[in-house]
Write a structure and sequence with these properties.
single chain; alpha+beta; eight-stranded antiparallel sheet; three-stranded antiparallel sheet; 12 helices; 11 strands; globular
Length: 357
């Protein structure tokens, strides 16, 4: 259907349009529908030209989509045509923004001060080798404001709000906990012009059977095939590995081969200390796979995959991390992955472990 990126027309999006829409905290389609008139004339004109360039057959196909018909069935044909063109254009721009963001995140390994850290309001702040920045540098950690500008945590999925709930959890007061994040390389706005959308959704997992985890003598692992809310993933791998006085946790949600170019695999690693019953480290990252690398990754389990793909770290938390705080961080990092949600809530155990993994 028309919602599939593979079905979208091959239309070049001007770099200045990508930069303008990528800098906003508002979804692309909302910007088109509600804020296009506020854009500079040069941007507005280019967007209008894009809307007009959508092939008529593509517009007619989109207008036949069941969801589109449900929302616009009462509108005159001329309005349906205009709305279909706006929706397709919005998806094209969003797709281009996602690809530019993924490129910038991966290319940052070649640049000592990648965007947005080269912005004047951040230029004096130290960043780690993984291009993370400490949350303590922001007066308001939830809003990520500094020097009159608003920034944002890099999203973990093509959905622009996929890191929203993770940021809310990271912004909570956790005394003694060191927290650092990867900023979105595109999303920078003057504070007086910044708009944010607020959401309400429970994203939380209750503690697991920590007694069992504390007494592990051998590796415990599993794999879940995608549940109804797991977007564009082939499967999710998980493993607990006892190592001396520690137990390491690794979980990776691997995208399908046709989606690997646009989105990275969500990958999380944590270190649990059985003696204290707390974690001392957890970090979440994206692993971007080339066509050859994703083909190989789809044939193995995370515990055997090694340092696959190109890793882009999204957040890091170190210190005394309670199991409750850890569960909240993990569930919000893997937002919309119903299998991880059920596992953290104690509603599912590890699936059977096939010998081939």
């Amino acid at each position: 259907m028309s919602q599939s990126g593979a079905c979208l027309p091959q239309i070049s999006i001007p770099p200045e349009v990508i930069a303008d829409f990528g800098s906003s905290l508002i979804h692309v389609e909302w910007q088109l529908n509600h804020f296009l008139d506020e854009k500079p004339a040069s941007i507005k004109d280019k967007v209008q030209a894009l809307i007009s360039s959508i092939p008529s057959e593509m517009v007619r196909e989109h207008a036949r989509d069941r969801a589109f018909r449900f929302l616009h069935q009462e509108a005159p044909d001329s309005e349906q045509d205009a709305e279909a063109r706006r929706e397709i254009t919005g998806r094209l721009i969003a797709q281009a923004v996602n690809r530019e963001r993924a490129n910038l995140l991966q290319q940052a390994n070649l640049d000592s001060r990648p965007p947005p850290y080269n912005h004047p309001s951040l230029a004096d702040l130290p960043i780690t080798d993984d291009h993370l920045i400490q949350l303590l540098h922001f007066a308001s950690p939830r809003l990520l404001e500094r020097g009159g500008f608003a920034f944002e945590l890099a999203p973990t999925l093509p959905a622009f709000n996929s890191s929203y709930w993770l940021m809310k959890n990271l912004a909570l007061d956790h005394p003694g906990l060191s927290k650092a994040i990867r900023l979105d390389p595109l999303c920078v706005q003057p504070l007086d012009a910044a708009r944010r959308t607020e959401y309400k959704m429970w994203v939380y997992g209750v503690p697991l059977d920590w007694g069992e985890i504390s007494t592990l003598k051998q590796e415990q692992h599993g794999r879940w095939m995608p549940g109804p809310l797991s977007t564009q993933s082939a499967f999710t791998d998980v493993v607990w590995s006892p190592r001396s006085s520690e137990v390491h946790f690794v979980c990776e949600e691997v995208p399908t081969a046709d989606q690997a170019e646009e989105r990275g695999a969500r990958y999380l690693h944590s270190i649990f200390i059985p003696d204290s019953g707390h974690f001392i480290h957890t970090d979440g990252a994206l692993r971007y796979y080339s066509p050859e690398a994703i083909a190989a990754r789809l044939q193995t389990h995370v515990r055997k995959a090694g340092k696959a793909g190109r890793r882009v770290k999204i957040f890091l938390a170190e210190g005394d991390i309670s199991t409750e705080v850890w569960s909240a961080l993990v569930s919000s990092f893997f937002v919309w992955n119903s299998d991880v949600m059920q596992y953290l809530a104690g509603e599912s155990a590890f699936p059977p472990q096939p010998d081939k993994f």
